[in-house]
């Protein structure tokens, strides 16, 4: 029986890439069924995913614990990327990351994969400050590490 991977940001660059990679890889596509999470099921990209056999759910608000519960229910693995650019603030992004972490831990998810970035302030010994789109993701990574949930981290190049 294949394991379920829930992919947040399924129509974006990162989530879409994760899904395409799994579908294209013979071994991964045998090992994993994919649940794509979106806020808008009417997107053409969502139709294309459905046509490829991907399960799609419209529970894409990571600020809503109820949405996250539905999205990760039964998942072995969860891939999550938060979107700083939607609000241009780290606070909603940090809240979303914590919601997903806590919900995954309670749901027994075996691997939480988080798209992270370094804390620029710490990495530069304070020379670069207020790079909130980096620092917020770094705060979420730290929270995940402290939570005890099995996790992996990716740092995409820009």
TrEMBL record:
Domain NmrA-like per the UniProt entry, residue ranges: 1-156
Gene Ontology cellular component list: nucleus
Superkingdom classification of source: Eukaryota
Keywords, comma-separated and alphabetical: NADP
Keyword Ribosomal protein applies: no
Pfam family, one: NmrA
Coiled coil: none
PANTHER family to which the protein is assigned, alphabetical: NITROGEN METABOLITE REPRESSION PROTEIN NMRA FAMILY MEMBER, NMRA-LIKE DOMAIN-CONTAINING PROTEIN-RELATED
Family: Belongs to the NmrA-type oxidoreductase family.
Protein name as it appears in the record: Nucleoside-diphosphate-sugar epimerase
Organism: Penicillium canariense
């Amino acid at each position: 029986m294949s394991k379920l991977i829930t992919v947040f940001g399924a129509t974006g660059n990162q989530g879409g890439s994760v899904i395409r990679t799994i579908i294209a890889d013979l071994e991964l596509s045998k090992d994993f069924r994919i649940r794509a999470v979106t806020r808008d099921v009417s997107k053409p990209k969502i139709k294309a995913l459905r046509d490829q056999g991907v399960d799609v759910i419209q529970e894409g608000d990571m600020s809503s614990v109820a949405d996250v519960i539905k999205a990760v229910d039964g998942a072995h693995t969860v891939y999550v990327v938060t979107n700083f650019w939607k609000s241009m603030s780290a606070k909603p992004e940090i809240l979303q990351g914590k919601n997903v972490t806590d919900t995954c831990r309670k749901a027994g998810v075996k691997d939480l994969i988080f798209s992270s970035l370094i804390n620029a302030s710490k990495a530069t010994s304070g020379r670069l400050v207020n790079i909130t789109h980096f620092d917020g993701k770094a705060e979420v990574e730290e929270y995940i590490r402290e939570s005890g949930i099995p996790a992996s981290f990716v740092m995409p190049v820009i």
